[in-house]
Amino acid sequence: MTETTTARSGQPCWIELYASVPEQSAEFYRELFGWNIEEMDSDCPLSHVITQGEQMVGTIEPLADGPVPADGWLVCLWTPDLTALVARVVPAGGEVVVEPIQVDESTRYAVVRDPDGGLVGVLEDPNFVPAVPGAGTPVWFDALTRDLERGARFYREVFEWDTHPMSDAPYVTHGVGEDSVCGIGDLGYFGAPGAEPGWQVYFGVADFEEAAQHVARLGGEVVVEPRDTPWGRMATVKDPQGAVFLLIQVGSAPQG
Q1: Which of 138, 143, 208, 133 shows the shortest CA–CA distance to 178?
Q2: 157, containing H or E segment
Q3: Helix-strand-coil split of the chain, %, nearest 5
Q4: CA 160 centroid distance within chain
Q5: Tens digit of pLDDT for each residue in 168-199?
Q6: What is the DSSP annotation of 6-32?
Q7: Are 47 and 59 in contact (CB under 8 A)?
Q8: Can you list the alpha helix ranges (DSSP code H) found in 36-129?
Q9: I need a surface site. Which of 26, 97, 129, 256 has the fewest CB within 10 A?
Q10: Residues 191-214: pLDDT tens digits?
């Protein structure tokens, strides 16, 4: 994922981990990525806030309070106009799962489902500034779908993606080359065994082999063994409660 300073419609801007036992998940990710995870007061709409250095990464929320059916990461995409975006969802073949809600004075949030069943959050935040990708932070995001043409069309029509197909794989990026910020790929080609359509997060690590081994030591599991790819060395793993994510050597991320 390229470092950018200007937000664009449909760009990943926030992540939420929905966990059966948030405190246990918090301990796992603290140990793995060195995150600072702070439990918030009861009057705050967020449960546990994740920061890495000075950057806010996302939150950990109770599974019972969320839209996801099992422990997992929810990727949120940025929009300058949530009302207009939500109006485009159903005509494009999707579903509004969580109607727009006011988070604070300037921020609004919703959750939608794409035509293949993948859940994605939507955030209207006028103060959003893209984070600097690096070790311990998300460096890439993509959706996996059974129908790439339909999926790419949905994100183009609803989230105003600037879609660019890759020439050598069934994959479409939002933005081109070094300017791309996320993508969508064919589930059968890119998905781990048993994977369902939906979004996935790639976290950068400075020492890939150590991080992959540390997942197992902390009670997680390597789902797809480490492999070298055109975008860097990566592995698909899951935390002790079953939330799946990817590790990728820092400085490398899928690009179109």
Answers
A1: 133
A2: helix 148-159
A3: 20, 40, 40
A4: 18
A5: 899 999 998 788 999 999 999 998 888 899 99
A6: S--TT-EEEEEEEESSHHHHHHHHHHH
A7: yes
A8: 82-89
A9: 129
A10: 888 889 999 999 999 999 999 999
Domain boundaries, given as residue ranges, for the chain: 12-124
- Nearest residue to 102 via CA among 91, 110, 92: 110
CA distances from 51 to 57, 141, 178 (A): 5, 18, 26
What six digits make up the tokens of 194? 């048993």
Instruction: Tally the C-alpha atoms within 13 A of residue 145's C-alpha that lie toward its C-beta.
Output: 25
Q: DSSP letter for 255, please.
A: -
Q: Mean pLDDT of all residues in the chain?
A: 91
**Amino acid (one-letter) located at 135:** A
**Would you tell me which CATH number, out of the four given (3.20.20.70, 3.40.50.720, 3.10.180.10, 3.40.630.30), belongs to the domain 12-124?**
3.10.180.10
| Residue among 253, 7, 8 nearest 135 (CA) | 253
CA distances from 151 to 88, 94, 183, 237 (A): 14, 10, 10, 25
Q: And the tokens for 185?
A: 């790929």
Contact 128, 108 (CB under 8 A): no
Which of 100, 101, 123, 96 is closest to 112 using CA atoms?
Answer: 96
Which of 40, 60, 64 is closest to 50 using CA atoms?
Answer: 60
